[in-house]
């Protein structure tokens, strides 16, 4: 066995060991007891507690830590509905979703046992993703983004498609005092990467121990800027792992005395951190339909072309989701590798949709608009529904961007003010249908409250520029 084969086998064994696989009994009409199997998994791994996660409207994991006995007995937990309308700092105020007059009631978080796994960042700890439902009826909470994506994937399943996905994330690494760990520009700098091995190696090990397959680590252009890429997976599993990825990286760094930021642009001099989402559709027979050449078009695949046309048709409708904070707008500047025009191109990183066609099973669309601070489930919900819209409506595909997207005046530019993006998201029939009116109303109220907070805050720039001169 070669060294490469041995390494791949070791990683496969670690991943298989870390993730619970619910039992399936095809021979019996009686459903197997998943919790009995989960109990065995937890005992085998000597787990003392389970972190039950719910992801809020900012993409931040919230939840509770349950001792194993309580997790197995209760099979869920109560948690406040207000997490879906809290501010990014968890401050609770009034919103269209919930407010003081409601008494801040609970909902029920139900573990999805297919996501139960060892928590590689903790001591004898496991974790599981939860779906939120009304206590009274058991119906899905309309603001639960994970449940939105599950319903969308059922629509693809009805078309005989499976969605494969990978989210490519960048982040900044700081010491305990929030000073960058490196002061050198280091794009693909292996020496600089080795200098950070004492922190990056434990992060990768924690990811592997959590069942997240790592493909590579690399230094990005700016000092302290890192990218760790994950292996693609079926869409929901990939999105769950994207949430966990950010949590694992942050928790492992904190344990070792470091800080991490997935903020879109953490300083004026810093390059932006992106969340580039790679998408492909796979037929039930196993073929990636984006790689099936069936027409005389640069993309080759009619399915890829139609999917891309939907992404581009609805991109401006989705900008409030791809740019959820005012900081995102500082990332989306010209020549920043962050796209700010409605464009597509073949292997063109200045375009909003980078298309990689005619390469068989690896054919895919890379949607590059969002930052690393965006919400993975909300992004996927918008992108996938936009793609469905393209498949169903045959929108004309705009011309390909074959050179510099920033320099060509033909391309429509995204809104340069968050107020405009929020207003469009609120008024769009597409987003109202895709996310639901309850979510749209609450999300827009939260966005406007966040802008109000920013407007009221006196910035360091204002003080440095005006205090001694005016």
TrEMBL record:
KW Nucleotide-binding (keyword) present: yes
UniProt xrefs under Pfam families: Gln-synt_C
Organism encoding this protein: Streptomyces rhizosphaericus
GO biological process: glutamine biosynthetic process
Domain GS catalytic per the UniProt entry, residue ranges: 145-470
Signal peptide: none
Keyword ATP-binding in record: yes
PANTHER family: GAMMA-GLUTAMYLPUTRESCINE SYNTHETASE (PTHR43785), TYPE-1 GLUTAMINE SYNTHETASE 2 (PTHR43785:SF12)
Protein name: Glutamine synthetase
């Amino acid at each position: 066995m070669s060294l490469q084969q041995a390494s791949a086998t070791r990683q496969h064994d670690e991943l298989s060991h870390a993730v619970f696989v619910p039992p399936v009994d095809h021979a019996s009409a009686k459903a197997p007891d998943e919790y009995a199997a989960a109990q065995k998994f937890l005992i085998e791994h000597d787990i003392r507690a389970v972190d039950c996660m719910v992801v809020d409207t900012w993409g931040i994991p919230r939840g509770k830590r349950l001792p194993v006995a309580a997790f197995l007995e209760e099979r869920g937990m109560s948690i406040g509905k207000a997490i879906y309308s809290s501010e990014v700092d968890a401050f609770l105020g009034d919103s269209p979703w919930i407010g003081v007059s409601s008494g801040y009631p609970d909902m029920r978080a139900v573990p999805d046992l297919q996501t139960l796994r060892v928590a590689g960042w903790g001591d004898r700890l496991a974790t599981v993703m939860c779906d939120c439902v009304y206590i009274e009826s058991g119906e899905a909470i309309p603001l639960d983004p994970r449940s939105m994506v599950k319903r969308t994937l059922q629509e693809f399943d009805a078309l005989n498609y499976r969605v494969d996905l990978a989210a490519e994330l960048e982040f900044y690494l700081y010491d305990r005092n929030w000073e960058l760990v490196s002061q050198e520009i280091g794009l693909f700098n292996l020496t600089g990467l080795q200098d950070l091995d004492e922190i990056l190696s434990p992060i990768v090990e924690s990811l592997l121990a959590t069942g997240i397959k790592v493909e590579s680590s690399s230094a990005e252009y700016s000092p302290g800027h890192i990218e760790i890429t994950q292996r693609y997976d079926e869409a929901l599993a990939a999105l769950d792992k994207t949430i966990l990825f950010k949590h694992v990286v942050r928790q492992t760094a904190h344990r070792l005395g470091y800080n991490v930021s997935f903020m879109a642009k953490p300083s004026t001099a810093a390059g932006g951190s992106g969340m580039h989402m790679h998408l492909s559709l796979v037929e039930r027979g196993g073929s990636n339909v984006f790689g099936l050449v069936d027409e005389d078009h640069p993309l080759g695949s009619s399915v890829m072309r139609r999917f891309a046309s939907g992404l581009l048709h609805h991109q401006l409708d989705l900008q409030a989701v791809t740019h959820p904070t005012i900081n995102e707008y500082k990332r989306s500047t010209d020549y920043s590798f962050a796209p700010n025009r409605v464009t597509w191109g073949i292997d063109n990183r200045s375009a909003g949709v980078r298309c990689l066609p005619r390469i068989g099973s690896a054919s895919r669309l890379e949607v590059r608009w969002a930052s690393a601070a965006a919400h993975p489930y909300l992004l996927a919900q918008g992108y996938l529904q936009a793609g469905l819209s393209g498949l169903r409506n045959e929108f004309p595909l705009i011309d390909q961007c074959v050179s510099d997207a920033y320099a060509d005046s033909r391309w429509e530019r995204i809104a340069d003010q968050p107020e405009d993006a929020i207003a469009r998201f609120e008024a769009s029939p597409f987003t109202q249908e895709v996310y639901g009116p309850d979510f749209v109303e609450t999300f827009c109220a939260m966005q406007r409250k966040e802008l109000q907070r920013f407007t009221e805050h006196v910035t360091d720039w204002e003080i440095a520029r005006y205090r001694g001169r005016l």
